[in-house]
Fold this sequence. Notes:
Distance between the termini: 29 Å
Mean pLDDT: 81
Low-confidence stretches: 1-6, 156-162
Radius of gyration: 15 Å
Helix content: 25-40%
Number of strands: 10
Strand content: 25-35%
Oligomer: single chain
Number of helices: 5
Strand order of the largest sheet: 5-3-6-7-8-9-10
Structural class: alpha/beta
Amino acid sequence: MTVRQDDELNIEIVLDAEALPREVAAIEEIARDEGIRGPVSATLFHKSLDELPWAIYLLAPVSLFFSAFLTRVGNEAGRDAYQAVRRLVCRLCAARRNKRGSLTVRDSDTFTHIALRPDLPEEAYRQLSQMGPEQLEGGYWMWDFEKNQWGPGKLDSSDSTK
């Protein structure tokens, strides 16, 4: 799991097994640049007759990820804290060459999954940064584009970036 060590976050990052070595290396470099330490592996296996979307999982307690990450990077030169998470999501997804896929923060202690996508509006990241861990605990959370708010979701094709 995740332990905060000074200004670094120790977060395990798991990619689908189909990730190319150059994509894994790019994810490792982005993680280092963003102050994230921890293993990066391409060990997530899934099967389908169709081409499967890529997957990135950030394995961390949700409360620790958001509070520590947002606090650390939010103190930089007048930048709003939520912008740092948005930047991280965009960079990680771009490393997967913007093919169809998803990035999920997964907390195995609380069974919380938060689906993050580079095409989420700024308001989604702002709201997420203001939500407390108790509001997010348990379940699968997705941005509802019609209601313009976070809500429980289901795992399906609408959770994938394109």
